[in-house]
Amino acid sequence: MGKTKNKTYWNVPVPKTLDEALRVAIRMDMHVSKADFIRDAVRRLLEQLGLYPLTKEKGKILVEAKDEGVTELALDFYRKNKRWLGKLLSVRGIAWDTKTGRPSFFLEFENAVVHFTGLNCGYYGEGPTGLARILFEEGFFKSFSEAREFVASREKIDLKREEVEEP
Question: Does 9 fall in a domain?
Answer without folding.
Answer: no
